[in-house]
Amino acid sequence: MDKFVLASGNKGKLKEFSELFSAYGVEVLPQSQFDVVEVPETGTTFVENAIIKARHAAEVTGLAAIADDSGLEVDILKGAPGIYSARYAGENADEKGNYLKLLEALKTHHEGRTARFQCVLVYMRHANDPTPIIAQASWEGHIALSATGVNGHGYDPVFIPNEHNCSAAEIDSEEKNRLSHRGKAMEILTAAMKQQGMII
């Protein structure tokens, strides 16, 4: 395997996946390169949504596909925004709109702001793959009182990981890849892919 399609149009995710897979000589192609339209995420869990996205990308492109479904769970909000993280502030919301809505939802909660990023990665060899590789990992932390930092994407400016006293948007990409939910899920995924002889 020398290339696969990433079932996402998110440039931040494409950059992270490309960096992580370049070590294996694998090229990660965005689904936009093949005019793949985003498929409705009708699942009720991260796993279901990742499978829906990977299957759709594999079907349209004829390539192996990898999909990521990830989001932020805030304990005091009973796991919200969860699977709706990307559209928390509405269907057409941008990343800043999403995290500003989160800060607003937590404005009366100065304590008990524990949260975690969750990531589920699904790798499908083809659209009818009956045994996709599924990897799941989380990144524990809490929600800051205000946004800081310019690196990363999504909720990074308001998420303080347990390992740091700064936001995820203030951590360099190498450190973030090592600590993050996506970085850890990628380690699990690549270990499974190595075991099955897909990458060396």
Principal-axes shape call: globular
Ranges where pLDDT stays below 50 over 5 or more residues in a row are: none
Helical content class:
25-40%
- The tally of strands reads 6
Described by strand count, sense and barrel closure, the largest sheet is: 6 strands, mixed
Can you tell me the CATH topology?
Maf protein
* Tally of helical segments: 5
- Total number of domains: 1
> Which strand-content bin applies to the residues?
15-25%
The helix/strand series, from N terminus to C terminus, equals EHEHEHEEEHH
Strand arrangement across the biggest beta sheet: 2-1-3-4-5-6
Mean pLDDT across every amino acid position:
93
Give the termini distance in whole angstroms.
Answer: 10 Å
CATH class: Alpha Beta
How does CATH name the architecture?
Alpha-Beta Complex
- Tell me the radius of gyration: 17 Å
Task: Chart the SSEs and their pairings.
Layout: E1 3-6, H1 11-22, E2 27-30, H2 46-61, E3 65-74, H3 95-105, E4 114-124, E5 133-143, E6 159-161, H4 173-179, H5 181-195
